[in-house]
Amino acid sequence: MPSVLRQAGYRTEMVVSLDSDLAGLKEFLEYNGIERYYAEQDFPQQAERLGLGLTDGALLEFIEHRVTAIQAEATPFFLAALTTSTHHPFAVPTNHPDVQALTKHSDGYVAALRYLDAELERVFSRMRARGLRDNTIVLILGDHG
Question: In the structure, how many helices (H) and strands (E) does the chain have?
Fold first, then answer.
């Protein structure tokens, strides 16, 4: 999909909340049409870290930042993201009461899904209020689950 959109004049980017040295990922993304790849070193220093890398909350806030910047340029764009909270060991912040309750479940994936859902709601609601979701495609890939 990124290759097709790029040929149609879309700007194509991907945000990953892991270290940029993830074996072969950058080359794979470039081969498949991603122009710009953002990784952990591109995030603000104060971005929340936990488990494998940055939290999905930090990832989604970075996405909001990218959407704000790209929409100001008035060019069509494609933005993809790879989450980490749904990857074993399922380390997620427990400040949401539902997430905290679900950490008692034997399968950590359940709490991780609720955490990601709550973060999507938080950030995308803010984006909707700011008009940032208009004419926008955001593809979020979940890892393992």
Answer: 5, 6
Yes or no: say if 50 and 116 are a contact pair by the CB < 8 Å rule: no
Count of beta carbons in the 10 Å neighbourhood of residue 40: 19
Query: What is the rounded distance in angstroms from the CA atom of residue 72 to the CA atom of residue 69?
Result: 5
Interval 64-89: pLDDT, tens: 999 999 989 888 899 988 888 888 88
DSSP 142: P
- Concatenated DSSP letters of 5-29: HHHTT-EEEEEESS-TT-TTHHHHH
E strands, 1-145, in order: 11-16, 36-38, 49-50, 53-54, 77-82, 138-141
Contact 111, 90 (CB under 8 A): yes
**Residue 16 · residue 83 · CB < 8 Å:** no
- Encode pLDDT of 26-47 as tens digits: 889 999 999 999 988 899 999 9
Q: For residue range 82-118, what is the model confidence (pLDDT) as tens digits? A: 888 888 888 899 999 999 999 999 999 999 999 999 9
CA–CA dist 136, 41 (Å, integer): 25
Average pLDDT, the chain: 88
